[in-house]
Amino acid sequence: MTIPGLDPIMSDVVQIQLPLLYLGSVNVWLLRGEPLTLLDTGPANDEALESLEEQLSEHGFEIEDIEQVLLTHHHLDHSGLATAIKQRSGAQIIGHRGTALWGMRFQERAAAERQFTLALMASHGVPAQVVRGSQEFFDRILADSAPYETDRVLSDGDTVQAGGRTLRVVFRPGHSTTDTLFVDEINDDAFVGDHLLANITSGAELMPTELPGDERRRGLLDYLANLRKTQAMRLRTCYPGHGPTIDDHRALIDDRLAFHSSRVDRIAEHVADGCGTAFEIAQRLWSEEIAATQPVLVIWEVLGHLDVLVNRGTVREEVDGHGLHRFRPREPVRLAVANS
Predict the structure, then answer these.
(1) pTM for the predicted model, two decimal places
(2) Upstream peptide bond of 35 is cis (omega within 30 degrees of 0)
(3) C-alpha span between 256 and 263 (Å, rounded)
């Protein structure tokens, strides 16, 4: 498709904000150039689809004009409409290999992660009735998601043409297991998904490793390491998955790292004060009501920071005979002093 009047390199980037439960909106980025590209899609529901149609029309396009869809990660608000767009336009779906695997095995993975997360909460002190009540969280994920088939599978370091730009693939897992940045190294721009957001701190989900067994990823440790890698990059503008663009990513990452450092210190204080489980700590950090109504998110956040403390060796994790995980301060090593 030829777009009259557009420079093939400095193509327009159009922000399209689609409605999203809880967060208010999710960004879909339209890259007006060849090939005509959508970066992310919004959730799989009629309200988001109608909004996408209306906003594309305001810029002179229809869904049928879209030539390719790039996915920054597999979460429902970023991949949900991918298949619907492909069915109407014939657009190629393009994403990192981790994102591709998620789309291909979506129902299987979603079911497995639901069971894993329910067991994770129970083993970290969340009461049984609260665990049962969290089913709505997973039902919402399924309701606004849809499987997708990836036509072009990317690896870290690959390049892809999109909207008149050459974008380099940079794999940055942490917020999710599939986070991918698409970096325009000519213009020093990056489409960053939820890896970095201007107005809120990205959470780090806790999921099982790819290998069989019950070991989980240390999501926050991965995320903090990858944030530091992104901080070292030369970037002018970051186009995120939610909220406004980011013009000083290094200063923002400093703020995010400071937040996590402060959170780690507070959680260490709660452990020292006798809070043994992640749920007990969550009730101190927020409130009993928030901990009971948002158990998945608070357990992910608390455990992520506990992982930092365990990794440092200042806190130890113990599992009792009932499978309950408890955290305690590690006693400092006392060195024997020989008599002189």
Answers:
(1) 0.92
(2) yes
(3) 11
| Residue 102: HSE in the Cβ half-sphere, 13 Å Cα cutoff | 26
Q: Which residues have a Cβ under 8 Å from the Cβ of 190 and sit 6 or more positions away?
A: 170, 181, 182, 183, 184, 233, 235, 237, 238, 239
Residue 285 identity (one-letter amino acid): L
**DSSP-derived 3-state class of residue 138:** helix
Q: What are phi and psi of 210, to 5 degrees?
A: -65, -30
- pLDDT tens per residue, the chain (340 residues)? 544 444 444 448 999 999 998 889 999 999 999 999 999 999 999 999 999 999 999 999 999 999 999 999 999 999 999 999 999 999 999 999 999 999 998 888 888 899 999 999 999 999 999 999 998 888 988 889 999 999 999 999 999 999 999 999 999 999 999 999 999 999 999 999 999 999 999 999 999 887 666 778 999 999 999 999 999 999 999 999 999 999 999 999 999 999 999 999 999 999 999 999 999 999 999 999 999 999 999 999 999 999 999 999 999 999 999 999 999 999 765 655 555 4
Give Cα separations from 339 to 35, 236, 332, 333, 336 (angstroms). Answer: 78, 62, 21, 19, 9
Q: Are 56 and 30 in contact (CB under 8 A)?
A: yes
Q: Whats the size of the chain, residue-wise? A: 340
In sequence order, what E strands does 111-158 have? 152-154
Q: Which two tokens stand for residue 82?
A: 């991918």
